[in-house]
């Protein structure tokens, strides 16, 4: 296979985008190009650092101008560059000599939500948001659509509505199902998320508040302290917040939970519910976004539309009903296993690198 890279402007998180880059590097030898990488990545993605090529000429976090400068001066011969973030595809105009593949991992909410929807969950939509959308839309219309791949049906639909053309294909992100274990359930529900407004963690807090059920919320993000203070202030002692423990600890929490709670607003895919399913645990999800493509009511999980419905679910679902879904959950997760992803992506990369 030719020399292939995946470009991540900055590697600050340990979420789905970083996980896809890691699996492409680990399984297919893809180089990860960046201008900044956090220094604890190997704790979350073992051995990832040897695949990272930092192209920055500065020791500081990159600005937009320095990122463009460093990418323009990239000396490596790259036969195919994979772009993941919506705006990183702009770099294909800076280096037209590098063939590209655009694997869309998500589209910013202000590109497709109405002003009313955006204001409700994410704050006021500004004039800058409109300009951002116009520029991205104009640029993506010039892309070769045979080089655009979506990570879910929802992402593909949003892309088509904005650009007017469908992506060439859909390849779901990978789940390392063999990492996860199914152990006897203990007395808690689980949520793994980022502490941001659109994740609607407030729904989870209000649903569990005043019940006899326990909830563990794991993650990091800008609102972690805000929610921690709220829980302490109101003495909500059945909800525990944990700030991103190591991978082994996270897998252990998955393995022993009763079920997984998912409240994200119009999430494009949602890997964490499938990680729970790989652990044999059903998913109780809001009825929207990516989970609509894999959660089947009464088979491997349940849906709700409101906080009241979520509260009703956790108060009435029996442990026996949740436990009975174990094998269907594992079967569902296996459809999204890394082996499936690698087979599809390997075929795609061979085609384009040739």
Blueprint of the fold:
Layout: E1 4-7, H1 16-28, E2 31-34, H2 41-44, E3 52-54, H3 64-72, E4 80-83, H4 91-94, E5 100-104, H5 115-122, H6 127-140, E6 148-150, H7 153-163, E7 169-170, E8 189-194, H8 201-208, E9 215-220, H9 224-233, E10 239-243, H10 247-256, E11 260-262, H11 271-278, E12 283-286, E13 301-304, H12 307-316, H13 319-323, H14 326-334, H15 338-353
What string, H for helix and E for strand, traces the elements in order?
A: EHEHEHEHEHHEHEEHEHEHEHEEHHHH
The radius of gyration over CA amounts to 21 Å
**Strands, total number:** 13
Total of DSSP H or I helical runs spanning 4+ residues: 15
Poorly predicted tracts of residues = none
Describe the structure.
The chain is α/β, with parallel strands linked by helices and 354 residues long. It is built from 15 helices and 13 strands. Helix 1 links the parallel strand 1 (4-7) and strand 2 (31-34). The protein is globular.
Defining traits:
single chain; 7-stranded parallel beta sheet; 3-stranded parallel beta sheet; globular
Describe the structure in brief.
The protein is of the alpha/beta class. The chain has 15 helices and 13 strands. α8 (201-208) packs across α12 and α11 crosses α14.
């Amino acid at each position: 296979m030719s020399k292939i890279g995946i470009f991540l402007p900055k590697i600050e998180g340990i979420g789905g985008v970083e996980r896809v880059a890691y699996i492409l590097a680990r399984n297919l030898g893809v180089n990860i190009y960046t201008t900044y990488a956090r220094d604890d990545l190997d704790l979350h993605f073992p051995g990832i650092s040897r695949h990272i090529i930092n192209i920055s000429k500065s020791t500081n976090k990159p600005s937009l101008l320095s990122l463009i400068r460093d990418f323009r001066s990239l000396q490596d011969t790259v036969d195919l560059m994979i772009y993941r973030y919506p705006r990183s595809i702009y770099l294909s105009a800076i280096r037209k000599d590098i063939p590209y593949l655009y694997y869309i991992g998500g589209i910013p909410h202000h590109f497709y939500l109405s002003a009313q929807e955006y204001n409700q969950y994410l704050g006021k939509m500004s004039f800058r948001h409109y300009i951002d959308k116009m520029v991205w839309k104009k640029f993506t219309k010039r892309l070769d659509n045979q080089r655009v791949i979506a990570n879910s049906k929802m992402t593909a639909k949003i892309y088509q509505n904005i650009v007017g053309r469908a992506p060439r294909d859909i390849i779901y992100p990978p789940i390392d199902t063999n990492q996860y274990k199914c152990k006897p359930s203990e007395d808690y529900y689980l949520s793994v998320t980022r502490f941001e407004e659109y994740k609607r963690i407030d729904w989870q807090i209000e649903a569990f508040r005043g019940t006899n059920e326990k909830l563990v919320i794991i993650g990091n993000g800008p609102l972690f302290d805000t929610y921690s203070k709220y829980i302490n202030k109101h003495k909500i002692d059945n909800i525990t917040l944990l700030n991103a423990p190591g991978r082994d600890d996270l897998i252990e929490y998955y393995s022993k939970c009763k079920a997984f709670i998912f409240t994200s607003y119009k999430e494009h895919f949602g890997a964490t519910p499938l990680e729970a399913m790989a652990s044999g645990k059903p998913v109780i999800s809001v009825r929207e976004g990516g989970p609509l493509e894999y959660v089947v009511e009464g088979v491997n999980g349940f849906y709700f539309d409101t906080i009241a419905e979520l509260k009703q679910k956790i108060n009435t679902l029996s442990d026996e009903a949740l436990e009975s879904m174990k094998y269907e959950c594992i079967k569902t997760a296996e459809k999204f296993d890394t082996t499936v992803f690698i087979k599809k992506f390997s075929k795609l990369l061979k085609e384009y690198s040739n």
